[in-house]
Design goal:
Membrane topology: Multi-pass membrane protein
Oligomer: single chain
Mean pLDDT: 78
GO molecular function, one term: structural molecule activity
Strand content: 5-15%
Number of strands: 7
Family: Belongs to the claudin family.
Radius of gyration: 30 Å
Order of helices and strands: HEEEEHHEHHEE
Low-confidence stretches: 189-205
Strand order of the largest sheet: 4-3-2-1-5
Subcellular location: Cell junction, Tight junction; Cell membrane
CATH topology of one domain: Butyryl-CoA Dehydrogenase, subunit A, domain 3
Keywords: Cell junction, Cell membrane, Membrane, Tight junction, Transmembrane, Transmembrane helix
Largest sheet: 5 strands, antiparallel
CATH class of one domain: Mainly Alpha
Distance between the termini: 62 Å
């Protein structure tokens, strides 16, 4: 019961992290305009995402425009597109595999060894999904910080970290921790193929009962006893 509860909690957290990764992919707030210099009062805020640029005005009006050419984008944006799309696909695959390997489902029948292997595979896929989210987010953050402290970059082109960067870091951490917890709920194996923990109760309960040994004749001094009437 404890392992089943841990599986449900870790799976729910992993799905939440996957949804957060989808939101990070769609949001344009990867880079925001930096408020530096003498004039801190601006009438508009510029947002730069991996799919579009947006300009938000103080009047509440917002205009967005998608990038015209993909090949003209910087390398970090191109890598972020590919890795975030890969993370979304791997997250969906992780959810499907993990559902089949959880104890509260009936997939794989009564084969507890197969269910444990499926759950372990789902946890590893969640960890890889978190890495696919962490790499582009950290790469973009490093580019923003380097350009901000680079004196050769004009002040009007300097950017700061947007809300999507922080949300991406949180999604990556949730995915990797949930995947690690989901993998740790799988049973450990001992020598001889017996389960050490995890599915131990159900494994012995579903095993067929051993046939009793046939009766042996009673002997005395290595000679069989005879019945007399």
């Amino acid at each position: 019961m404890v392992n089943t509860g841990m599986q449900l909690i870790s799976f729910t957290c992993a799905v939440t992290g996957w949804i957060m990764a989808i939101a990070v992919t769609a949001l344009p707030q990867w880079k925001v305009s930096a408020f530096i210099g003498n004039n801190i009062l601006t009438s508009e805020i510029k947002w730069e995402g991996i799919w579009m640029n947006c300009i938000y005005q103080t009047t509440g009006h917002m205009q967005c425009k998608t990038y015209d050419s993909m090949l003209a984008l910087p390398p970090d944006i191109q890598a972020a597109r590919a890795l975030m799309c890969l993370a979304i696909f791997m997250g969906w695959l992780s959810c499907t595999v993990s559902c089949c390997g959880m104890k509260c489902t009936t997939c794989a029948g009564d084969d507890r060894r197969a269910k444990a292997g499926i759950a372990l595979s789902g946890g590893i896929l969640f960890i890889l999904t978190g890495l696919c989210v962490l790499i582009p987010v950290s790469w973009t953050a490093n580019t923003v910080v380097q350009d901000f402290y680079n004196p050769n970059v004009p002040m009007m082109h300097k950017r700061e970290l947007g809300q999507a960067i922080y949300l991406g870091w949180a999604a990556a951490v949730i995915l990797m921790i949930s995947g690690a917890v989901l993998s740790s709920t799988c049973p450990l194996m001992e020598r001889g193929g017996r389960y050490r923990r995890g599915y131990i109760g159900r494994s012995f309960a579903n095993s067929p009962a051993a046939a009793p040994d046939p009766p042996k004749p009673i002997t005395s001094n290595n000679l069989p006893l005879k019945e007399y009437v």
